[in-house]
Structures are given as C-alpha cells and as structure tokens.
Backbone:
C-alpha cells in the first residue's frame, strides 16, 4: 500500500503539471520536440539508473518484511515487480516460496468428526490462498432408503454434494454473518460446495467462513476421526 500510495502521488503530480502546461498553452496536444541521439542516450542511461535503484531498494524492503514475518507485505511488493518484469522466473519462484511461508505461518490442526454435519474451521479472505490437508479414515454405515432419483443433492447445506465423491471431505465458504448473501437475497449467488479430498490448495473464491464435512447422506452413521491441517485461514474461536 505504501508503494502504491507513492506511485499514485507521483502520477497525480505529473498529471497536474502536464495539465498546467496545457492550460497555459491553450492547446490540447503538443507536438513532440525532436531529440538528438545524444540526449536520447542520456535519458536511457538515466532510466537504467532509476530502474536499478528501484530494484535494489525494493529488494531490501522485501527482505526486511520477510525477515520480520510480514510475508503479505513482501508479496505485495513482489507482485509489483512481477508486473514490471512478468517473465522473470526468479520473481515467480520467490512468490511461490512466499505463498508457502504465508500458509505455513498460519497453519493449525483440527479434528474433523465425520459423524457431524458442517463444522466451522475459520475465516478466509477472497483471493488469498487456502490450503487444507486431510489424513485418516472412518467407517460409514447407511440404511437410507433411496428412490430412482438417488440421494438428494440439491441443497449444499443439508444434502450431499453432487459434484463430490461419496465419503470425500468437502468444503463450503459461507458469507459473513449479516451480508446480503447470507440472507434470502435472490440477486446474490449462493455458495457452492467443493471437493477437498486429501489435499486442496487454491485461492478463496469469496470472503467468509470455511466449513468442512464428509460427503455422506443424511442419516448415515460415521465413526472415526480425520486429522486436518489448515493454512491461510483465521482460526474459528
């Protein structure tokens, strides 16, 4: 945000100065002044000097943030550098490393009870990476009577998740309490449940509360316990 503010202020000052010149000349467009090869070479050299200084200073700030555990801030600066040099493989690898650091720094473990329905895990932020790893097994017993249409799967809150395998760990991100999506506003898209399985790592599609359960029909009896490791989530209290 600091870098963005500096760039915004600089752009505003430059645009203000340009507008003042145009107002004084009374012209909407000015013809470019011819530049000599020597002057062009000087400008190019100055540009390289500014770029080098910017990269050195930015790298120093990124390292400072990283050493202080401020991985999100370091990532913001790296993303700015990536926009300036999108083909730079070192920046790409560093961003991947920072993603791992962010997930590792926020990691915690929970027990998932397969005999219960949706269970709260914690809050997620839209477009921030979320990682969920599950291990263990459980026993499933079901005496559910099923008709020709199969097991109900229309309501992700109460039914099975049609897109996920039977028995798989699934997740859903419920909108924050009090938001319009949390109510019965038909103009808002309802959250979709998705498969987690053994491992899931992806950016959150929305802000909200992450919930987990096993994908079994209502009325099923499940015994056992699954161990879940979560990263990129603010733990539910």
Residues:
């Amino acid at each position: 945000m600091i870098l963005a503010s500096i760039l915004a202020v600089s752009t505003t000052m430059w645009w203000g100065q340009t507008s003042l010149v145009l107002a004084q000349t009374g012209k909407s467009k000015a013809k470019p002044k011819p530049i000599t090869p020597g002057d062009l070479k000087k400008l190019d050299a100055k540009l390289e000097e500014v770029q080098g200084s910017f990269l050195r200073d930015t790298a120093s700030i990124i390292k400072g943030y990283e050493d202080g555990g401020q991985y999100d801030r370091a990532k913001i600066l790296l993303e700015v550098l990536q926009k300036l040099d999108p083909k730079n493989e070192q920046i790409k690898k560093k961003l991947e490393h920072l993603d791992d650091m962010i997930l590792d720094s926020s990691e915690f473990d929970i027990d998932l009870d397969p005999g219960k329905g949706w269970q709260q895990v914690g809050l997620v932020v839209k477009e921030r990476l979320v990682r969920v790893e599950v291990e263990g097994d459980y026993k499933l017993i079901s005496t559910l009577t099923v008709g020709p249409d199969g097991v109900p799967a229309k309501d992700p809150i109460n039914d099975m998740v049609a897109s996920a395998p039977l028995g798989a760990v699934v997740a859903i991100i419920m909108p924050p309490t009090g938001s319009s999506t949390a109510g019965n506003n038909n103009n808002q898209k309802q959250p979709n449940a998705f498969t987690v399985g053994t491992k899931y790592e992806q950016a959150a599609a929305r802000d909200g509360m992450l919930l987990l359960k096993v994908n079994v029909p209502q009325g099923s009896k499940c015994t056992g316990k699954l161990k879940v490791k979560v990263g990129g989530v603010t733990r539910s209290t």
Q: What stands out?
A: Confidence is low (pLDDT under 50) at residues 1-7, 180-187. The CA atoms of residues 52 and 149 lie 66 Å apart.
